[in-house]
Design goal:
With about 525 residues, the chain is α/β, with parallel strands linked by helices. It contains 16 helices and 18 strands. It has helices spanning about 30-40, 70-80, 130-140, 165-170, 195-205, 220-235, 265-285, 290-300, 315-325, 345, 350-360, 370-380, 395-415, 470-480, 495-500, 505-515, and strands at about 5-10, 50, 55, 60-65, 90-100, 100-105, 110-115, 130, 145-150, 175-180, 215-220, 245-250, 255, 305-310, 335-340, 385-390, 425-435, 460. About 40% of the residues are buried.
Length: about 525
């Protein structure tokens, strides 16, 4: 099996100035980032690696921090990797790029992202290698397994395509795309100055000494590891950078482990990762009637409200967790969640307002207009997600009055204070109904998101229903790809369907965890929002 990697780290940018007399915007870490990645990929001959720009340093080929690399050279290297002029292309191809990323604004709403090369010169309209061209190359490439790792500013532009388009164009290909930041964000280096933030997380996630010698680091385990490490780092240093990660198709093996299972701590780490992967697969099971609707709405509206509902035990908590993670950047924020099912909270409007003051860092006696202003201020720099859980336990008249006194004025003020077209952040509200009673009451709900009153009134999402046998079959297939997970061969979708009372979601979670030797309520459910 042929596995090839192209590793690029550019430090030199002599022409990347606003005006000709400005100091060159050279970088300090990309070359060392690329060399560290290259050395890791070469461990145990996992990949055959090509480095650029390269020189013989200390008797061996290394990424040269003092050497330039131009756009023609980068384009040729990428084409040779993904569109080689041979009848036998590699089975797996990996591109790692560290350097400057540039963003060109074509119109008010249209932008293009570029991987900057040493000859990039904005003053001469020479931007670098287009991420749109990279996407087209991936689409045309015969390479079965494609991995793209971009540690540069604005790299999220590569993922600026509808998930449906991505899935359609990924047909027959396995892809792993990891970008350091969103399409409008800068990418940072670690405070210690050794590596870019994303590169540091990738190096840790690919470390073969943390994986048993009989196992592999895969694109899925890497995604979980990178998300965990970056979330901890961002929480500690508070930098405005959110990685974007997308995996499609089958599992891609990246690095073979070389650790021996000799310590309890190692086994515990492996077990925790296994838990995370199992939760990830459960989280992504079904909800095909709700998730695409919410994706479409948030693509069109910066402010949105939804009613999540269904019969009891249909997985409302899992769905709201999944929806709260629809965009990778949302994983780095804490939703404002209020359990209105508690009589002391949901029974009176004053109690609800006081709950919000504690979340927003305001005095308990703060006025409603102060709370709304605080939300507007926060929305200028970050996404704000409200989750009101167990609204089915609120009296309909109280819930209706709450929406009129809190949500409707908030939506109106937000459009005055920070209009949708002038911000990149979202304001979202999820009402979670655990028994399907709210939609049967006289609460005013929107049936379509293009109604004039939306989003001042919540959108009534399709009710959650039990899982079909086909959905369970797909879930079992994905769970069986988790390394070292012990799942009985006799487990079939039909058995799981029967044991879960005909596919009731929360019973499905409990049963499949039990079959795998894990606990849902006492274990995986702790990751629900």
């Amino acid at each position: 099996m042929s596995r090839e990697a192209l590793v690029v780290g550019i430090n030199k940018y002599p022409f990347l100035q606003e005006i000709a007399t400005d100091k060159a915007k050279d970088l300090t870490t990309p070359a060392s980032d690329a060399e560290a990645i290259a050395q890791l990929l070469e461990v145990q001959n996992n990949f055959r690696v090509k480095r650029f720009p390269a020189s013989i340093i200390d008797g061996k080929s290394q990424v040269d921090p003092n050497k330039s690399f131009n756009i023609k050279e980068l384009e040729r290297a990428i084409l040779d990797l993904f569109l080689p002029e041979t009848e036998k292309p590699p089975q797996t191809a990996l591109l790692f790029f560290a350097g400057h990323g540039l963003r060109k604004k074509l119109t008010k709403s249209l932008t293009r992202g570029f991987l900057a090369t040493s000859d990039s010169c904005i003053r001469k309209n020479q931007w670098g290698f287009s991420l749109r061209d990279l996407w087209d190359i991936l689409h045309e490439s015969p390479v079965q397994q494609q991995i793209i790792l971009l540690d540069c500013c604005f790299s999220g532009e590569l993922l600026n395509f509808r998930d449906t388009e991505l899935g359609k164009q990924s047909s027959g290909r396995d892809r792993c795309l990891i970008a350091a930041s969103r399409d409008y964000e800068l990418a940072y280096q670690h405070l210690d100055g050794k590596h870019g933030v994303l590169t540091g997380a990738i190096l840790a996630g690919l470390n073969p000494d943390l994986v048993l010698e009989s196992e592999w680091v895969t694109n899925r385990t890497l995604a979980v590891s990178v998300e965990q490490k970056l979330q901890k780092y961002y929480e500690s240093v508070k930098i405005p950078q959110s990685p974007l990660i997308s995996n499609h198709g089958e599992v891609i093996k990246l690095i073979q482990g070389r650790a021996k299972a000799t310590s309890e701590s190692f086994e515990e780490d492996a077990l925790n990762l296994q838990f995370r992967l199992l939760f990830h697969e459960i989280l992504n099971a079904d909800f095909k009637n709700q998730v695409p609707v919410v994706k479409k709405v948030i693509d069109m509206h910066r402010t949105a409200a939804f009613l999540i509902h269904g019969e009891q035990y249909c997985g409302q908590q899992l769905l709201v967790t999944r929806l709260s993670h629809l965009k990778p950047k949302w994983k780095n924020i804490s939703p404002i969640k209020v359990d209105v099912g508690q009589r002391a909270i949901g029974g009176r409007l004053g109690s609800l307002w006081r709950q919000l003051t504690s979340w927003l860092g305001l005095p308990k006696d703060a006025e409603s207009n102060q709370i709304i202003e605080r939300v507007c201020d926060r929305l200028l720099t970050q996404d704000v997600i409200f989750i009101f859980d167990r609204v089915n336990d609120m009296q309909p008249r109280i819930l209706s009055k709450w929406l009129q006194e809190f949500w409707e004025p908030l939506v109106g003020r937000v459009e005055e204070h920070c209009p949708s077209q002038q911000r990149n952040t979202h304001l979202l509200m999820f009402l979670v109904d655990n028994n399907g009673s709210v939609c049967k009451s006289d609460i005013l709900l929107a049936k379509k998101f293009d109604e004039p009153k939306y989003p001042k009134i919540p959108l009534d999402l399709p009710p959650i229903s039990p899982f079909s046998v086909d959905v369970l079959e797909e879930l079992i297939d994905r769970v069986t790809t988790i390394p070292k997970l012990q799942i009985p061969l006799e487990l079939t979708s039909q058995i799981l369907f029967e044991k879960s009372e005909n596919g009731i979601p929360e019973f499905v979670y409990e049963e499949i965890c039990d079959f795998c030797g894990h606990s849902w309520e006492g274990g995986l459910a702790k990751w629900l929002i």
